[in-house]
UniProtKB/TrEMBL annotation:
SUPFAM superfamilies: Metallo-hydrolase/oxidoreductase. It comes from Paenibacillus albidus. This is UPF0173 protein YddR. Pfam families: Lactamase_B_2. Residues 19-213 form the Metallo-beta-lactamase domain. The gene is yddR. One of its GO terms (molecular function) is hydrolase activity. Keywords: Hydrolase.
Amino acid sequence: MSFQHIRNATSVLTVNGKKILIDPMLSNPGELPPVPFTRSLRRNPLTPLPVAIQYFEHMDALLLTHRHFDHLDKKALSVLNKKMPVFCQPEDEAFLLKAGFMHVHAIEQSYEWHGIQMKRIKGRHAPGIAAKLLGPVSGYLLNTPAEGSIYIVGDCIFTPAITEVFRTHQPDIAVLNTPRAQMLLGTIITMTAEDIVSIADLSPSTKLIAVHMDAISHCTFKREHLRSFLKRRGLEHIAVVPNDGEVIDF
């Protein structure tokens, strides 16, 4: 198994010999608008792709946690192969079919594909009424007998349901979106550095990967901040904070 962090929440997971593209935002810097209901008026993304756009022509499947524009943008919809299978939450199925994807698999609970077992974990993008404003979001626990398990947590705040996943399944790897993204009134709508520490305490055998930083305007915590936070506490070992384009082999 290997994991390549592309940018923001976009990544490529290679498992059982299949390349799975996760949450593709493929636009060039400044091609996307500011994030609504936030304090920033900067256009997005803030950073370029670390690979050529042609790289994404060779994916075997697409996995979508939700369809906010920093996880699925118009550029991705225009360039991706519409014949490859797409795995998503049920709420996004109709949109993806209308967008032209021919093989959309809405995962209610679980789905198996090429020996990869996928279990959907319902998430919450924000506390309280802000969760309704932001809409549904899911995470996915992928497992194979030979290569182990990886939990793509998605844009979720740290909830009791996520705690239960770590406590019950103890995934080998987990990818956490930890940019401390904020809305207008200061509501935190993603995980934070403190959540990384809590999850490491909860599931110490899980290798943690922290992403979704530096590329979108409402994300207040950068990679350098997270690395400093972990170093000050002597916790550099609990999480990998990859640069854009970096490949992590397991």
